[in-house]
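=== How it folds ===
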Amino acid sequence: MKTDTIVKQEGMKALINHLGYVDAERFIILITKEPFDYTEWRRQNLENDLSVRELSDKAMAFSKLH
């Protein structure tokens, strides 16, 4: 099992690699800015083979509705 620090580092690396620095930062701000239960959203809405961009778009659309 990976440590929390490693998971955070790998997550940031994945976001930056797929979105670039600016949009990765925007994604994090959007997720943390509003009350958002990612686990519940994932259970209800996440498809398995989404790109990071598609996931981000779905998360933003969901947060606008709730």
Residues 22 and 42 are 24 Å apart (CA to CA).
